[in-house]
């Protein structure tokens, strides 16, 4: 068990290191001098060469790439991701402020999608080729094809402006969370519904399901106790991977609903070429992504006893 | 006594997109309270569908007519509630393949406990509580636990206390089937419907399960409906037998009279083609019907009604050849004198002290960390195979017999010892020359999975030819040639495997193995997946081919009757080693190793004199795990004649009675068990010396008894 843990921590570190290198590299490769852009934006007029040079010296931008990266990395290891070029606020603080908002949104979206997808997928499989199945397939198709932002605006229009049910923008209350979570969750729900359906169809043919029926288990339990748990094994993997896309989608949805969060932070920083923030956001996203994947592995073990539990079997 | 089951004129129909099939076409029979009734037939006879219809699991079929009455109640029209009640309390069913019939994500304890809960209150089944019951891997309540333990002991699961919280994948096939049986017994059924309950198991395990069923029937008065393709199994256990063919019951009567004096020609033909009833190496009669090419799939077996079955023998006698070339006089003449003019050259294949082991884990980390534990699969095996000779290889699953085939075929690498082909040392397939590759053909067990469904028969056979660099026209000619060798029309080259029956698929597999004119053919359970009548035809074909082409066969089988029929010599394998090698008729009539005797005892329906009837339940213990083999003789935990010494001394393979045997008391235990103790001392001393001379790893092993 300890060995497994060490292995996982090792791979986590390796992935984060790679991500930091790539993100740092890409940011430095982007055309345009951040010093010039930023100073210009601050003064509202083109800065002089001396001012640019001073800015570059202050933020270490005149050093060679490797030196820049190493010094950033060593700071980062101590938890200091640098400061914003604009506001001089520490990046770590900014991240810690927006991360919970985004996680809240992502988790809520996952919950919405699973709550929609699992029962729909199961119903679809159980009532294969009936109107229930066809309707849910059609809805799923719509869900996949509809862009997030469009659904978001649509929901704002209907629920907030016409019906006045929920606040249109901002964050803080549950009411603020509902529309963004639905917006973000439907796309995923559509994917998961199809997955659950396929997986259930296969499992319902399995002989152990027939055994359960022959035992006199009632049909609802045959489906939810004997079949569903087996069917969820492949689903969990995909859902775990999809979490990355949910984080992605959060960027857009946050902008649409003007929710503070990693997404808004990132978009603002990109436009302003506030590189330390961009790097910080990328790093944190990667971190969350890798950690979810580890959690998925754990869920796997819980669902399927055949998965080797880190070598603790003789 | 319990209630009676009456099936009357049952008809079940399958509708597929293209056709409707009457899987059961008017079956009628009765299972009296407490009786054991056997339902026999070949695949496609409708026996399984009939059995399932009784518990109303006939889906995707549909009962279109007839009635099923249990305890006076009509089942064909019963509603779901009543059916659930019946399934939960009265009619329990056990299915064929235990590795797929248990739910992999719940512990066996929970699966048995669930059945108990349903029996106690079939109407309740609270949704959330049931869902929650499956989540934890331990059974919580003590009372339930002890009930489950009791059931596990009833079906003969040793160390039930340690295994109750284990998952099905941690159990062997035999143990899984016992769990399934425990689940059935949990319902205290008055009728148990067992659908091929032992087909997927070793004969030793099968014998134990059958004994268990007989005992349960005697103790509890539980009626049993046993569905099987195996007349031996059925006649051993059952009071009455129902024989089904093409959806109808063709014979129904007391087991004894059906067996000894069958009325219907089909039953007669079925009994005749059983290899253990025939003279060794003779031609087997085959229950034959219109030429095989009319039968692309099992759904349309040819009609029987009204036609008298012709066996091969009668066809030949009468001068008509029902199956084309099958009974040509040339072959007949040759098979008439089996083995008499066999060439006695040097051996073609020799194995010397061959060993192979597998990595326990393929994970890179494990290899890097040097945790490279290897499980021995084959250990110190020596064997030679001559032209025209058949060596039978028998043993329980996991004993290493298939590994030996794979090693000889070059599909696996040896870790020690050498394999020689015509005197030259050969390695794995990659290092063999084209000629060497061509010299060894292989046929695997399941023809439907060993043939690529996307290739035509012709393409399948052409594959090895193509590899060997034959040009197109030569390939075409050869395909036609080998197809005629295996008695398939040349037109079959364009067909796909799904258009062929199981027996025809196996013929194609044999044709592929013969394509490059090998001198050795390795046959890994070539008939295990086939019906008995098909098996008989394939065995005849193999005998013909051997006579014509002077082939050497290494014939792997778990079925001693088949091996007795076809093999000149037998090698019995246990835990990766040969325990007895010798001429077939001697080894299988007067074995010198107790394990061979065990296998003989386990043959269902075997009433021959060589059957000593040791307590089968004890013998059915499972082979110990190869990772930790027992000290001394590997067989001692299961050996009925083991002594103190057997737990310490590892017996060598010694020449005894025309063969070689690995037992301290080789042959002696047969004549007189008491004499043995007198001879004990000397025997042990010599063994000790031989053993210390041979620095075999087995002696130094610190393994403990795995179970
Ligand atoms: S050596 Fe002993 S334990 Fe082994 S087979 Fe012979 S009698 Fe049985």
Q: Can you tell me about this structure?
A:
The complex is a heterodimer of chains A (about 325) and B (about 700). Helices cover about 80% and strands about 0% of the residues of chain A. By secondary structure, chain A is mainly α. In chain A, helix 6 (about 130-145) crosses helix 8 and helix 11 (about 260-270) packs antiparallel against helix 12 (about 275-305). Chain A is globular. The two termini of chain A are about 15 Å apart. The model of chain A is unreliable at about 310-314 (pLDDT under 50). In chain B, the strands form five sheets. An eight-stranded mixed beta sheet of chain B has the order 18-19-20-15-21-22-24-23, sandwiched between helices. In chain B, strands 6-7-8-3-9-10 form a six-stranded mixed beta sheet, sandwiched between helices. In chain B, strands 2-1-4-5 form a four-stranded antiparallel beta sheet, with helices on one face. In chain B, helix 4 (about 110-120) packs across helix 6 (about 140-155), helix 19 (about 455-465) packs across helix 20 (about 470-485) and helix 20 crosses helix 21. The longest helix of chain B has 21 residues, at about 675-695. Residues about 290-345 and about 675-705 of chain B have low confidence and may be disordered. The interface of A and B includes residues 213, 216 and 305 of A. The complex binds iron/sulfur cluster. Iron/sulfur cluster (SF4) binds near residues 593, 639, 641, 646 and 663 of chain B.
Which key phrases capture this entry?
heterodimer; A: mainly alpha; MetI-like fold; globular; B: 707 residues; alpha/beta; Rossmann fold; 29 helices; 24 strands; 36% helix; binds iron/sulfur cluster
Architecture blueprint of SSEs:
The complex is a heterodimer of chains A (314) and B (707).
Chain A: H1 2-29, H2 34-43, H3 49-58, H4 65-77, H5 91-126, H6 131-145, H7 148-162, H8 174-204, H9 207-214, H10 219-257, H11 262-272, H12 275-303
Helix pairs in contact in A: 1-12, 5-6, 5-8, 5-10, 5-12, 6-8, 7-8, 7-10, 8-10, 9-10, 10-11, 10-12, 11-12
Chain B: E1 5-15, E2 20-31, E3 36-40, H1 47-54, E4 62-70, E5 73-74, H2 80-89, E6 91-94, H3 98-101, H4 108-120, H5 127-133, H6 142-154, H7 160-163, H8 173-185, E7 191-195, H9 203-220, E8 223-228, H10 231-237, E9 240-245, E10 248-254, H11 255-260, H12 265-272, E11 287-288, E12 310-311, H13 312-317, H14 329-336, E13 349-359, H15 364-368, E14 374-385, E15 390-394, H16 401-409, E16 416-421, E17 424-426, H17 434-439, E18 440-443, H18 447-450, H19 457-467, H20 472-485, H21 502-514, E19 520-524, H22 532-549, E20 552-556, H23 560-566, E21 569-574, E22 577-583, H24 584-587, H25 594-601, H26 616-619, E23 654-656, E24 659-661, H27 668-671, H28 673-693, H29 697-700
Parallel strand pairs in B: 3-8, 3-9, 6-7, 7-8, 15-20, 15-21, 18-19, 19-20
Antiparallel strand pairs in B: 1-2, 1-4, 4-5, 9-10, 11-12, 13-14, 13-16, 16-17, 21-22, 22-24, 23-24
Helix pairs in contact in B: 4-6, 4-8, 6-8, 19-20, 19-21, 20-21, 21-22
The structure holds iron/sulfur cluster.
